[in-house]
Amino acid sequence: MPVIREVRVIPPPPGEAPDQSPMKVSKTLIVTRGLTHRCPNCGAKKLFKEGTLFRLNAACPDCGLLIERDEGFFLGSMTLNYGVTILGVLLPILILYLVGAFSGVVAAVLAGVSAIIFPMVFYRASRSWWLMSYYFFLPKHLPANRGELAPGQDENI
């Protein structure tokens, strides 16, 4: 005969339901801030160091959000940059060449120059969009949304 066990669910104390607390930074706000190259946590336009084009701040100077999270975190932004370059720039050049819009030499030169210039122009957007994507899917990882941490609790809920 099977053994039936009673399972008791102990509700959290009032006001301590972390999964049901409203987020201070909504997903819409995360996307808006990502598309405008702003900090996903506080909205400051300080992802990149002042006076530089390619140097990312390690943390937001206003709220302290770690931007350079872990080694390898921004490999995704490199992949995003690579994919947009291939699909958005080089593939159209190839298609235009194949339909006869311009010669092979022109296509090769245009593709070569575009493959070097476009990733540099798109660099800031790819970093910002990757950060946006991360926090879009894990919004509770933003300090503004996660609340206070218990002693010894990992910040990546």
Describe this structure in words.
The structure is a single chain. The protein is an all-alpha fold and 157 residues long. It contains four helices and no strands. It is elongated. It has one domain (24-142). The longest helix has 34 residues, at 104-137. Helix content is 45%, strand content 0%. α1 (27-35) runs antiparallel to α3 (104-137) and α2 (75-98) runs antiparallel to α3 (104-137).
List the helices and strands and how they pair.
Layout: H1 27-35, H2 75-98, H3 104-137, H4 143-146
Helix pairs in contact: 1-3, 2-3
Provide tags for this entry.
single chain, 157 residues, mainly alpha, 4 helices, elongated
* Number of discrete domains: 1
Structural class call reads: mainly alpha
**Mean of residue pLDDT?**
84
Q: How do the SSEs run, as a string of H and E?
A: HHHH
Helix proportion of residues, in percent? 40-55%
Number of helices: 4
Rough outline: elongated
Q: What integer value in Å does the Rg equal? A: 23 Å
Low-confidence runs (pLDDT<50, min 5 residues)? none
Distance between the termini: 41 Å
Largest sheet: none
Strand content: under 5%
Number of strands: 0
